[in-house]
Design brief:
There is one protein chain. Helix 1 packs across helix 10. The strands form three sheets. Strands 1, 4, 5, 6, 7, 11, 12 and 13 form an eight-stranded antiparallel β-sheet that branches. The protein has eleven helices and 15 strands. The chain has a domain of 329 residues. It is globular, with a radius of gyration of 22 Å. The protein is α+β, with helices and mostly antiparallel strands. The longest helix is centred in the last third of the chain and has 10 residues.
Amino acid sequence: MKRKTILQRTSLAGAALLALAVLMPAPTRASSHMDAPLITLDPAANTADVYAFLHERESDGKKVLATSLTVYPFEEPGEGPNNFRFDDNVLYQIHVALGDDLAAGRATVSYQFRFTTSYKNEDTILQAFLGVIENVDGRNQNLTQTYTVTQVDRRSNTRTVLGKGIVPPNNQGIATPLYNRGDNGENRAKPGVSSFEELDKYTKQSVVRLTGGNATYRSFAGQREDGFYADIQAVFDLLQFRKDKPPFDSQAGFNLHEMALEIPVSELGGDQQVIGVYATTSRRTTRVLTSGPDSVDPQNTGNFVQVARQGNPLFNEGLVALKDKDLYNRTQPVVDSKLFAKYASSPELAKLINKIIFGGQNVAPENNRTDLVAIFIPDLIKVDLSTDEARLAGGGPNYAPNPDDPGFSRLSIFGGDTLKSTVQAGFFNNGTVPGGWPNGRRFGDDVLDIAVDAILSDLRDPANPKITTVNNLDGVTRNDQVYSKVFPYAATPHNGRNHEHHHGRAQE
């Protein structure tokens, strides 16, 4: 007899500090990617990080807003018998707020990613790979995911399918040699590059052009290396950092899944504005499970209900109290001023830093943090589109094959990395704004150190800011993999056969 079970799912620094107030919505969600209790049980819908920054497309020099949403944190490189992948039953969305919608925390335009999974052969235990992958979706790539990108434009109340793409294979090792150095599956993953032509074959084949209106978009969806770096374990181990010990990057050696989308600035109304970016994941309200010999795959029905959201790094994880963390994931930024502003106004993290790190000294202002409220509420990553393009990270300033852009600093404005705005006064009333987070967020921004510097500093008087910095709180100053300075920016996924996560076993 068939039995049914129904599960319900309810779902910083100077007048740049002024720009912090205008530009910086939420450095407080320390991206250990475990920001709320419920979503940790749902990795495919668990939003890890959102990136958004201004860039010039290398092919035509057009200004684009580069956006990225990562999910499925802490993917162990390599797999078997099953496969890390996007979930066909999740609605993934990247949202952009324009004009008055920015202050309100409303999405003006949303970009939806939906996935479909298929197999070439199900009469085998070899779920992902039937042999060595020579081309994306070739005969030996058993598991293939395709996706559709749809634009929902609330300015015109229209839905437009921009196009479709194919997800490349995960980096297994022998089965996926072209991800790895020397095109050899025994070697570690290739480092990031500075030109599109240098990207590995699988990644190049998976970058697709989409058309909408009079503009060209580009998209990518697939496994990448986790670009966040920090000693998050020490943060939540009573802020006891590993002094006189090798730095410990909590995310080193792990992969995740990325959806990246280049949005032409012309499609957003031009570059003379500040815009906001955040992302959400949603599931259907009802899932029906069946048992017995006649059982079928789970059936998902009903409307989509939001289960996670992500704006600035660290906000939900580092500032929002436990009782409200799951609520944050179920709500939209439009309610942030009512429900979550108190956590920026009187951040517990400031009190803990004063007590534990500074021995009870009142270094970080603990109350009436109107500057942090302006930065974090509503929780969208604000990006000034009127500046020059963002400086990007490669493998460090001295990494000859792909160095950081001149002037790049992992500390953004706190490291002297600034840009000039033509649409806001910025810090010191001269248009100075951060070069990275919290003016957008780039791969390579050290968001933990930037956030702590912002909390320690008093930005309530932008004309006379009081800056206090630690610059190197946790000892971790770089990512474990080299970023690419071309789309899709995130580094090559770690090789399941040879990677840093299994300490002492990785080999060049």
